[in-house]
Amino acid sequence: MNLASGFELDTIEFEALLKAGLEDSDPAIALALLEKGLELYKGDYMPDRRYEDWCIEERERLLVLYLRGAERLARLQVKAQSYDRAIHWCEAIVHKDSCWEEAYRLLMQCHLKLGNRRQAARWNQKCQHALAEEMGVEPMPATQELYKQLSESDVTDL
């Protein structure tokens, strides 16, 4: 396809917005770029060509870019105390990659900030289960330490 023909590819715009949002040091600008870029992601690249070798790498690359962008957006929303929005994006991450451990940590933190210790514990259990099932490993020490801290602390201390 000739890009000079005036056609626009959403993958090019998606990639440009996500890369800019991941790199921008201004939280407000990064948040706007990431939200706009993530809106363009409609699922796996070339889903009707799932088993064709020529597009597998591009599909994986775009998925990882989506996951990284969603994680940065969730982190920015945690900093802004927009916990429900952060939860939304972390759940989207886990839906796409059930072993993206940082999303579980953010989910645990957000639910505790909202005063829901039980839901934080559920996300910890889901993390442990997904990692054991998919990869045969335990959560990273950072996740285990976070859960230990959260279970020992008062919700208002976090």
From TrEMBL:
The Bacterial transcriptional activator domain extends over 9-151
Checking Pfam families in the record gives: BTAD
UniProt cross-references to PANTHER family, sorted A to Z: TRANSCRIPTIONAL ACTIVATOR DOMAIN, TRANSCRIPTIONAL REGULATOR REDD-RELATED
Protein name as catalogued: Bacterial transcriptional activator domain-containing protein
To which species is this protein native? Paenibacillus alginolyticus
Q: Source taxonomy lineage?
A: Bacteria, Bacillati, Bacillota, Bacilli, Bacillales
